[in-house]
Amino acid sequence: MTSLIVFVLFCALTLNSPSRAYALEWSEIDQADIRSAENFLNELDTYQAQFIQVSPDGHYSEGWIWVQRPRHLRVEYAPPNNLLLVADGTYLIFIDRDIDQISKYSYESGPFRFLLREDVDLTKDMIVNAVSREPDLLHITLVDEDDFKAGAVTLSFTENPMQLTGWTITDPDGHQTKVSLHNHSHGLDLHKKLFRFTTFDELRKDYRYGVYD
Description:
Layout: H1 2-11, H2 28-43, E1 46-54, E2 60-68, E3 72-77, E4 83-88, E5 92-96, E6 101-105, H3 113-116, H4 122-125, E7 127-134, E8 137-144, E9 147-159, E10 162-170, E11 176-186, H5 199-203
Antiparallel strand pairs: 1-2, 1-11, 2-3, 3-4, 4-5, 5-6, 7-8, 8-9, 9-10, 10-11
């Protein structure tokens, strides 16, 4: 079940052609909020955080995420989940050790392009379908231009200061998988081993770098 959840997370942002003039349909306040989110993502250099993921059936899992923009990412799950996602600069690599499966995807078709591209433009790379607010929280919902019913992802940010706090994946049936981020760190000197996946890494049993209880 967990593997399916991660695959949904991985595929939900496989968006297609650039938007047409959707940015023009937003109010000035909405456009300013979209630009603020883009500016935050574009200013990210290195980033580390812990995450908590809750599936539609209430299943709980956690782990660590590391980012070195552009093009490098590691999403690592805590035991007993043996799932790993690595962006090594060339491919997005999804590893499920329970079934010995390794899948490679291009950056252009992957969900993390909003985080890994050198220049983030949410209204060009994706379709902004909704902008909503709560006290000190901004939510931006993205959908596939060619199939609005295929599902959506909602990115959530605090505003003072600006911080990505997580995302919510909504599948075509309305079921939601929620990922929240905490224990954020910026500007770290991240080791290159975090963003590699070689034959040696494939064989290593102790492959995790996060700190787990």
